[in-house]
Amino acid sequence: MTTKLFGEPVRRREDPRLLTGQGRYLDDLGEGAFEAAFVRSPHAHARIRDIDVSAAIDVDGLVAIYTWEDLPPLLAEPLPLLIPHPALTHGRTATPLARDVVRHVGEPVVMVVARDRYLAEDVCALITVDYELLKPVVGVEEAAQSAHLVHADVPGNVGAHLVQEVRSAAGLGAREAIEAAPHTLAFRLDIERSASMPLEGRGVCARWDADDRSLRVYTSTQTSTSVRMAIAAKLGLPLPKVEVIAPDVGGGFGVKIVHPWPEEVLVPWAAILLGHEVKWTEDRREHFVSSAHERAQTQFVRVGFDDAGRVLGLDVTILHDHGAYTPYGIIVPIITSTQLPGPYKLGAYRVEFSSVYTNTVQVTPYRGAGRPQAVFCMERTMDRIAEHLGADRTAVREANFIQPDEFPYDQGLIFQDGRPLIYDSGDYPGSLRMLKELIGWDSFDRTKELAAAEGRRIGIGVGCYVEGTGVGPYEGGHVQVTSDGRVHVSTGLTSQGQGHETAFAQIAASELGVPLERVSVVTGDTRRFGYAVGTFASRAAVMSGNAIALACRKVREKALRIAAEALEADPGDLEIVDGEVRVVGSPGVAVPLATVAVLSNPLRYAFDAEAGRATQFAGTSSFDRPPVAEGEEPGLEGRDYYSPIRSTFASGMHAAIVETDPLTAEIRILRYAVVHDCGNLINPMIVEGQIHGGVAQGVGGALYERMAYDEHGQLLNASFMDFLMPYATEVPFVETAHLQTPSPLNPLGIKGAGEAGVIPVSAVIASAVEDAEGIRISRMPISPSELFDLRRAAP
Amino acid sequence: MTDIAITLTVNGVVRRVETPGRRLLSDCLRHDLGLTGTHVGCEHGVCGCCTVLLDGEPVRSCLMLAATADGHEITTVEGLAAPDGTLSPVQRAFAECHGLQCGFCTPGFLCTVTALLRDNPAPTDEEVLEGVSGNLCRCTGYQNIVKSVHRAAEIIAEES
Amino acid sequence: MKPPPFDYHAPGSVAEALETLAEAGEHGKVLAGGQSLIPMLNMRLAAPGHIVDVNRLAELATVSVESDGVRVGALARHAQVERAEQVAAAQPLLRQALRLVAHPVIRNRGTVVGSLVHADPAAELPAVLILLGGSVRLARPGATRDVPAAGFFTGPLESALRPGELAVSALFPTLPPRSGTAFHEVSRRHGDYAVAGVAALVRLDDDLRVVTAGVACVSAGPVPVLVDVTEACGHRPAASADWASAARAVRDRIEPETDVHASADYRRHLTGTLAERALRDAARAASDE
Q1: Which of A28, A49, C7, C136 is buried deepest, with most CB atoms within 10 A?
Q2: Which Pfam families match (chain B) (predicted)?
């Protein structure tokens, strides 16, 4: 490989357009489209008695008003339950518009289409919905008590219940192992709701071509291929007549993997019905109450351990708040329960979760997707063990680590992809060594004493995690070299700022030996690539990266074959350098890839001078075989797929030093250190950026962000004034170090990096605040007001 | 509610628009003038995505009626590069330092930082943080944005 | 999140603005900086029939230091007042407070008088006006009246401004020699409304003993809470004044509420702590005069 771009911090190809206002996000499209707005439920739980639109119909500019009764049969049904699971015995999804009962504030009831959004909102304000109020269920404990039901036909509000147990080497169950252990502890942990909260909300723009009877839908999604299939199914359209495109997307972080959203089927439906382009751009208030949240769990932990702090048995029971519906199945609690063991060998492990319905916004994955809760649980447990034994917190972790020579390591659980959870590679003791050095763990006691002498309280915390990344089932890549020498790469999954256009171009340029500038990458456009799963679970680089590499290798092989014939050389003696196929050692003997592309496509018509070289009288083809030989296809292109046997497992460890104000209880992060291992790095600059952003979201989740519902199910802080996403002034400088343990599972040796930064932050900050204050932290996020309360309650 | 005729000078070009009195400047720029580089992230003035320069000073275009801007000069992200397309020092610095990911908040940061460095060509870390403290970014964690601002200051100093 | 329909008026003179407002009566709303009004319009929490945009009235965009204080016109932006050196010299508390108002970009647009009229009990400027004993000048066609701060703030987001009136300016009195001020607050994020905040004013005699000491607290009740702590801190030299006792007096007086960001107890505790810090700083500033 001569064009070494893989592994280099090359600048992003996306940036020039995004820096000049030339990006195209959803609301930048569809000028002249009708715009939709929704009447949404103001109540958490209510029965719709009547909808009165009479006051609204005179508004100038009104185009249409739709309620559930207007929907055709397929659309009137509940939306799909995307990921069924045998344990999800009572999965429930909403209808696109509420049929009779609304189950959370924000649920769509009426769709309005008007000439513009201002008018559509005017119409919404004039529609009256008469509700009979029902008793709302808010919070997991109230749900578990089940005095009232969210869904009348779901007893106990329990949507799913799942137990997994891994027995000890000696055959003991976790509970037996805990009973037999020298030390045991039991405690409860709580973690509250936050949300993905991308700065661009959701949005859909649909264009119906009545002449062609085809539909083009733009949507701010993490999975355009699956939205396409859902729309075709829901609207009864032939799949080839539907195309779905994810334009530039202003952040996803999980919320945009859910699909089809009600609006994703209603807007196209209205566009067809009205014969006019229709657009809906979600506003911020809608995003708070109508999309999805995550994180809320209550965990009951029992652990048994020996004098060295080795965990002999761990038994965790989780109450998971699923909100009003379960369109994304139980992926989040499955991830919590299976990623909980982290980098540790637990003697025996039992985990049980109940996923309960509440009259709140539905819960679906948000960056980290259940792992922050898992790591909070495991790492709080490690700290409790250390406290109990009077041991150093890192020593307890070391005592439990899986060792580098123990890979592949089977945790004995079934992961979120339905496949065995087997760690592929890693070096946990090495990571911890690096981290301790980076943060100065061993000298911190002295630092703390010096600070205390000045009346300052500081504390240090640590958190370790293992993250299953690159989950299947597959992704594909298509690579085409055109006769101008350009390389066109496409893959079906989508981009929301991860720099795929750059990273995938680096892979293609490296594999094909062409300059980066010649490569262009398209993602998330079903016109270019129809088979894909989507962007989530830190999988894009692993899945599409490898698929594109494999597709490039096909193209390369074909290019060498064709060039070998033209150069009368052996393909094995050829290399591609700077877009030219050359004989190794004789750089003068070469043919440009552009020419190879011409030769790959035998032509009758010369549409340009270069093409003339491949026409039928150019004398280039042999008379002994047909112009397109058997087993060959015209064109210099290749398509391939990557479908892994199972996930790869990235890992990392974070440490933080915090200061708490003795008087005001303000919490300030003084230092934040990250050691991260995601295997081989495609573009270290981009990976670093992913970590920074993840840590910032983690800091938000640890110290600032929560969804504050009152007992009526009203979200009290549904604005950026009161839902406190950190600004630059709240986020610490992140110090990073990388360890590279390549994955043996894929050709590029890479693991995912997208979610890593966010995962351990709540655990780390809790650990550090606990160290500073000497007060147990069992609940995150923590605000100064709550720290003040804890201080007062402390013995 | 009759439409109001207003005149704005946007990125140096005089534009006349007929607009309802209630139309937000952000919507006017995006949908009446086709300058969709100015983004709308919250419509209550907190996120800063819609920040533009009004007579050179950064303001929230979602917290201003288009009619109020009548007669004023506005610079949007589309107007930051030189007429020949050369990116401004701030734009170049953001590209160099990976100061953006999804790019949605970026136009607001670029406008804010352009004014910040004009008023204070060599800001300290604290001044940079204070300067960008009203702009939310959900992707970058801000570290590379702060780095970009310092780098932009360097580029401006080198080129002046 | 788009504003509801309204009639838009852009008067070219104060007189025309007053006429328009008088006609609109209770359906009229003044638009100046818009940094509080427009979010409320976008969320449709306000639906005035008439918006009277005073942004063309350059005559209101004035800041002047007069014999009795700093007079701030209705169109003077936060940033303009914050940057004015003569204002900082005449009444330092204004700059001390303005630096804490939201973010720089908001301050480029928001107006001082608008903030007073908005009367948010979590905002800094109402507390400043109350502490300094300032006033707001309200006008209607043919008449103006000055309302003292003590009577101006009547409840959360409620002021003495009557329908049809325009707040044309506010007066922030200057202080006699040996006076000092300070503003301390804690907010969840930098630039957020304060969880608790305290503006303090201390006057000393020539022997540097405390003559008067007072604080105005934000987020501590339905309106900014003014607490005279002169007695609590004692007629002592500033260096040995009993600021802790003053803090206790403040904690006793205020009536903060619990919300999503903080409990009432925490706010009470925090306000006392901030009062102590602010009083100490104010006294130091007075000593240095």
Answers
A1: C136
A2: Fer2 (PF00111), Fer2_2 (PF01799)
Q: How does DSSP assign C44-92, residue by residue?
A: TS---SEEEE-TT-GGGS-EEEETTEEEEETT-BHHHHHH-HHHHHH-H
How far apart, in whole angstroms, are the C-alpha atoms of residue C279 and residue C272? 10
Q: Answer yes or no: do A16 and B80 touch at CB < 8 A.
A: no
Q: What is the DSSP string of A190-250?
A: EE--B----SS--EEEEEEETTTTEEEEEE--S-HHHHHHHHHHHHT--GGGEEEE--B-S
> What ipTM describes this predicted complex?
0.98
Q: Which CATH number does A472-642 carry?
A: 3.30.365.10
Cβ of C4 within 8 Å of Cβ of B22? The answer is: yes
Are C105 and B59 in contact (CB < 8 Å)? yes
Say which CATH architecture domain B89-159 belongs to: Orthogonal Bundle (1.10)
Which amino acid does the sequence have at A174?
A
Query: Considering only the top CATH level, what class is C58-173?
Result: alpha beta
Tokens of A483: 């006769």
* CATH architecture, range B4-79: Roll (3.10)
Contact C106 B64 (CB under 8 A): no
Tell me which chain C residue has its CA closest to the CA of residue B27. C2
Show the low-confidence residues of chain A (pLDDT under 70): 1-3, 620-621
From the list B22, B68, B134, the residue facing C103 with the nearest CB is: B134
Each residue's pLDDT tens digit, B33-45: 999 999 999 999 9
A284 contact B CB<8A: yes
Query: How many of the other CB atoms lie within 10 Å of CB of A169?
Result: 8
**Would you tell me which residues 99-158 of chain B have a C-beta closer than 8 angstroms to some C-beta of chain A?**
100-107, 110, 128-130, 132-146
* Mean predicted confidence (pLDDT) in B96-122: 98
**What's the pTM value of the predicted model, to 2 decimals?**
0.97
List the alpha helices (DSSP H) in chain C: 14-24, 37-42, 78-83, 85-90, 92-98, 104-107, 112-118, 124-132, 149-152, 230-233, 243-253, 264-288
Range C7-53 has CATH code 4.10.320.10: no
Q: Where are the domains of chain A?
A: 32-134+196-290, 163-195+293-471+645-793, 472-642
Tell me which residue of A108, A69, A24, A96 sits closest to A264, measured CA to CA: A96
Task: List chain C residues with CB under 8 Å of A782.
Answer: none
User: Under CATH, to which class is A163-195+293-471+645-793 assigned?
Assistant: alpha beta
Longest dimension (CA), chain A: 95
Q: Can the peptide bond before residue A420 be classed as cis, meaning omega within 30 degrees of 0?
A: no
Q: Which amino acid makes up residue A93?
A: T
Inspect the interface and report whether the beta carbons of A728 and B80 lie closer than 8 Å. no
Chain B hits for C1, Cβ within 8 Å: 43-44
CATH of domain A32-134+196-290: 3.90.1170.50
SS3 A13: coil
Transcribe A517-536 into DSSP letters.
Answer: GGEEEEESBTTT------S-
Helical spans, DSSP H, in B10-142 = 25-27, 89-96, 106-119, 125-131
Q: Where in chain C is the domain with CATH 3.30.43.10?
A: 7-53
Secondary structure (DSSP) of C223-247: SPEEEE-HHHH-SSBGGG--HHHHH
Q: Does domain C179-288 have CATH number 3.30.390.50?
A: yes
What single-letter amino acid sits at B1?
M
